[in-house]
Design a protein that fits this description.
Number of helices of chain A: 9
Number of helices of chain B: 8
Largest interface: A-B, 92 and 91 residues
Shape of chain A: globular
Helix content of chain B: 40-55%
CATH superfamily of the largest domain in chain A: Cytochrome c oxidase-like, subunit I domain
CATH superfamily of chain B: Cytochrome c oxidase-like, subunit I domain
Oligomer: heterodimer
CATH class of the largest domain in chain A: Mainly Alpha
Strand content of chain A: under 5%
Shape of chain B: elongated
CATH topology of chain B: Cytochrome C Oxidase, Chain A
Largest sheet of chain B: 2 strands, antiparallel
Structural class of chain A: mainly alpha
Number of strands of chain A: 0
Order of helices and strands of chain B: HHEEHHHHHH
Strand content of chain B: under 5%
Number of domains of chain A: 2
Largest sheet of chain A: none
Structural class of chain B: mainly alpha
Order of helices and strands of chain A: HHHHHHHHH
Helix content of chain A: 55-70%
Amino acid sequence: MILPAMGLVSEILPVFARKPIFGYKAMVWAMVAIGFLGFIVWGHHMFVSGMNLTLGAAFSVSTMIIAVPSAIKTFNWMGTVWRGSIEFTTPMLFALAFVSMFVIGGLSGIFMASTPVDLFVHNSYFIVAHIHYVLFGGSLFGAFAAIYFWYPKMFGRMMNETLGKIHFFATFIFFNLTFFPMHNLGLGGMMRRIADPTVYEHLRALQPINIFVSWASFGMGLATFIFIWNFIWSLRHGKPAGKNPWNATTLEWTVPSPPGHGNFDVTPTVYNGPYEYSVPGMQKDYLPQNEKAPEGARLEVH
Amino acid sequence: MSTSATTFVPDAGHPAAGHEHHHGHEQSFFFKYIWSVDHKMIGLQYLWTSFFFLFIGGLLAMGIRYQLAYPGVPVPLIGSLLPSTIASDGIILPGGYNMFFTMHATVMVFLVVMPLLIGGFGNYLIPLKIGAGDMAFPTLNAMSYWLYVLSGIIIIASFFVDGGAAQSGWTAYAPLSSTAAYNNNTQIGQSLWCVGLFVNGLSSIAGATNYITTIINMRAPGMTMFRLPLSVWASSSPRGSSSSPCRCSPPRRPCFSPTSTSAPPSSPRRADSRSSGSTCSGSSVTPRSTS
């Protein structure tokens, strides 16, 4: 579920860092590895179900191994934005938030992969915090980044940047206020899926945190209305977007926004890899995939 | 809209396309926006539909958080509108809370994140990024979308049946999901949940078949596999490897045999944990045991 978001963010980071993606082939094989390893980690949901400890150890190891390709991707994203000339547009902010929130969720995931640790934190709010850092901070932030990024292609108009940034900062701040204290709730002993924490003696002292978390989540819910408003308002009143508002290289930016029926009037021919930004020896700082490189341009090898 | 029919329009090669009308000329509203086989429109349909479900999933999350902050306090404004399986006098019942977190997770995972990222952006972007005119199987693509809508209707409808929606968490592990006593003595909500996810899985498999065929066969000249943008890689590898088999996973199968699921709870401890509202954490190790 996180993989499509990873792919979308990998498109957005190079565009706004004006650099090629760092380690294209490593990214591809990391994705394939995550897709494959995703098969053999399901047991990590069931460490406390009374499964054989040897089997639990096997699932522990496979779960920890999946951290390797994930870390490859994370370091490559960092390598991509490293010393780039970064434009902090709304999609870029969401993409950067995706990377950083995914790291937080991933780190708590690594030590939960260890069975002895998991025995303590499983079925507590620690797990809830982890899943939301990965699925909300990961997938949904990636989705927001993608919506802001491809909206001009889909509807022919730009979304409002100011509203977008307000939406980003509100969501980002309230997101962390909502889900970070859940780590503390979980370590404090709050179980997952209980309807009424106040009936448990040891949880009464934690109730203020619960109320705080709830109000933060209401704030996050309200922030979403900014997004809905921006989305609908921009359908009619957004700034018209040309074919290629972000100066990106991939093929969808070579057709009108929105693309007509059949997408391409003439079937494009592809000459380059997808991330040729700031190519040495070129006038403009990006090289669309369907344009031949000029003499003397030093391309990434693809 | 461009009216130029190229060789990439899937219907253009069809013998009937010559004398019948071309797509893209004067399509009625119905064929353009509703019963569309154009990958861009289907992508947008996925997008809008998943926004709708995102709203529902968000409301359920607000319900969860309200209950955890103010247990036993009637829900303001909408409390009296909630069905009797969820709340009485506006106060959320433990069973209703179980429905909230179960359905929040189900909606968010299966009706929001996967359709939005894979269905919406995958559909819209894959043909555009690889230089193709449409998906390999446009009709299958439309079917995939409508199966998703159907699954969403089934899953949301389970709130309004006798006994209410599923309560066993989105993992639906077997003892909990297959015992009627944990589901308001009816299994209807849990069964609908299973049917909904089954249909959702069909939608996923249809989409996965389409995506992989498209990416392998319909790349523009010069678009080698290692010139594919990473999002195309990302939407093909998980679809091929993990999504299809996961959808047939064993925990969901017991739900399809309702005759074997009406056994009463065998241990009184289970019943106790239910009455305090913690159906799902009753038998597990929690940090509480450390103190």
